[in-house]
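Course exercise 7: structure representation. Students receive a sequence record and must write out the corresponding structure in token form. The form below is the worked example handed out in class, using peptide-methionine (R)-S-oxide reductase (163 residues). Read each field label carefully; the graders check that inputs and outputs are placed in the correct fields and that the protein name is recorded exactly as given.

STUDENT ID: A-19
EXERCISE PROTEIN: peptide-methionine (R)-S-oxide reductase
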Amino acid sequence: MMRRDFLSRTAAVLGLGAAATAATRTGAAEGDGPYEVTRTEEEWREMLSDAEYRVMREEGTERAFSSELHDLKAEGTYLCRGCDQALYSSQHKYDSGTGWPSFWQPVADSAIGTKPDRSLFMTRTEVHCSRCGSHLGHIFDDGPDPTGKRHCLNGVSLVFQEA
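STUDENT ANSWER:
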């Protein structure tokens, strides 16, 4: 029994290490375009904090439960921090239990773009802003009805605009 616990914990730690490594790689958000809103690396670094830059421009991931937006229940719209495009509505937000702000759909399919993310030991679906290319998070197939999707987002990529 102790050996099984040890192996489970070791696998979990290795998984977190792989996730941390993947979270620091240079992101395709810098050049997937063309995007309506473009900035130089210097301009992005000037307007974003280090944590925001790491997530939005290098496809990083913030720590679970670290975003003030995770527990926010107010009515309004979640905008892209990089370009102020409306991305998600509070009407589509739900508590996924994952520690990141989660939504079952965007305000419009055209507001986001997706691409395969093969940075871990599986293929995930990365989601980014369709206007500026900023990395938002990932989409999973374990969300609630009516879409069955979970848009699991980094709060640092978003700005909340109250209704």
